[in-house]
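Note to self: keep these together.
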Amino acid sequence: MAEKMAMAKAINESLRRALEADPKVLVMGEDVGKLGGVFRVTDGLQKDFGDSRVIDTPLAESGIVGTAIGLALRGYRPVVEIQFDGFVFPAYDQIVTQLAKMHARSLGKVKMPVVVRIPYGGGIGAVEHHSESPEALFAHVAGLKVVSPSNASDAYWMMQQAIQSDDPVIYFEPKRRYWDKAEVDVEAIPAPLHKAQVIREGTDLTLAAYGPMVKLCQEVAAAAAEEGKSLEVLDLRSVSPLDFDAIQASVEKTRRLVVVHEAPVFFGSGGEIAARITERCFYHLEAPVLRVGGYHAPYPPARLEEEYLPDLDRVLDAVDRSLAY
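Structure:
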């Protein structure tokens, strides 16, 4: 039966189910055990499964991921937490030069079933290094899957699918959505991990987003509807691979596309989407693909982050500019 729960709780329940189902699943990270994580996403797991399966690690991100790689080589399925997005960079070398390449380097003989959980994005008033959106850095790396749920149901099922994957998955959790609640049916048949989903039908323009910006795009579509504009909202769910077929199908219907993400627009994932869709849909587009995102600047202090992050007005402005062509 479906149960309404917050995203943080949905991830917790998904990890619990995976730990129960497979003794080779491990959870590792800074403060994930006794504390239950700084956002309490892993609350109660160490109590129920023991400290040999839910492991409090030293404050050493490179060591956490390196250890997970070794465990994966021995047949385990580690789920590691990077406590905050900005802390991942000490582990970037391990992720890029080892984790992402093991499968190819071994000609497919070595599997790397490692999930790297990263709470990411802004909107919580955090201090420096706690509100980054580095998804494009990982999407650029061949051999990594990069996903980001926008709601509790997807958070539950995408975690299940990530843990079952034999390839490494970078699982970006939008921390500002941890407390948003939605119905979660733990007996449902989930959509494929990398399949985008239309969550609001429209005819005039497509809004494409993932993770924390999907809810904003729904609000934009609702506001635009009051002015007689019909916007389609596409939840991409996966950044690598990207479901270009779903984006193309939507754009061929609406003929306009605005891509929204928290990360800076400059060299962001929206640029790849814009380029590919321009190639695929050149004769369907009635306006250039527009992008809305953060600025090409270091993430600002908390008192300024609402000026930095995309909001309703900035996305509506892009919608108006697109419809004006």
